[in-house]
Structure prediction request, 369 residues.
Amino acid sequence: MQTQSEIGYNSKIEGDVVITRIDAALAWFQKNSVWPMPMGLACCGIELMAVGASRFDISRFGSEVMRFSPRQSDCMIVAGTVTYKMAGFVKRIYDQMPSPKWVIAMGACASTGGMYRSYAVLQGVDNIIPVDVYVSGCPPRPEAVLDALIKIQNQIGKEPILGKMNLVAKLTGSSKS
Amino acid sequence: MLTLDLANQLKAKFGDFISEPVEFRGEITVKLADAEQIAEVCGFAKAKLGFNYLVDISSLDNYGEDPRWTLVYELRNFANGAELRIKTDVSEEKSELPTVLGVWATANWHEREIYDMMGIRFRGHPDLRRILMWEGYPYFPLRKDFPLAGKPTNVPEVAFTEVSPMEGGPFVTIPSSGDAIGREPRVRNPEE
Prediction:
């Protein structure tokens, strides 16, 4: 009976074994399969469609699975003008997303209210939900959105997923999922 | 002129309630003296004069004057292309007039928008809810005495609003052939 398994030197499975930490493995899975929640609210939503279409092709970064159900998505892309009427629904959809979750504020309106200094528009979606990456532009070029996605991926790669879940739970006051 | 004929037929039917048609740049406008008659006038315009399409209803705030509100109905006759504008005044104390929903179904959302933005009520409208602002918002934001930046409100569990930072705005772009620096949106005082 073999008491010591020398996996690295077993000629049958050599090269097929990677030793890592569970946090790093989870982060690697997570960062290469960020499923966006496309919160398309205005013209940025059109540009977001371009990001998903063949010319820019968000699937090169593992995020082609746009989920219209918040229960199945990791990253909310707030694309467009958030009116006060819509703000409650954006918050509610964010709350329905399971942790860990990230938010991209795409474009000037979602980031700061943009040119809409008016009674009707929320002055930046970070008033209601925590934003990880802000993308400038009106609307941003698709490359800028991909860059934001890469920034999110780098962030996911750096932080322990389990720790992020605890952090989000602490910030939003929800119980650990 | 075709539209003038139709406007005169309207005047012949309703007499003193309808003003003399005024022409400005090829567009004909009549004024209706009594807003309570608007549904009858519009019904006649559709049934007998062929104005089968309501292009728009808009409202004006003549702030500081009496009557405060002016409603503008834009009518179009698809058969011959005639376009007629009917204006009527409503006082601030009343702020109410009959709906024209029975004449054109499309008036539904036009009237809801006017109610939402100006606070003018349409008697007989079956569904007079806000259409752009959230239900429960306490102000009518297109009134002249409402600040562009808004006012703080909060209805728990529904929605909230805050005053938006104007930073000295509103920011105005001027059309010119100047460079981008000269044309860019910025605070511009009227005398400039």
In short: The first helix of chain B runs from residue 2 to 14. Helices of chain B lie at 2-14, 38-47, 107-118, 180-183. DSSP finds four helices and eleven strands in chain B.
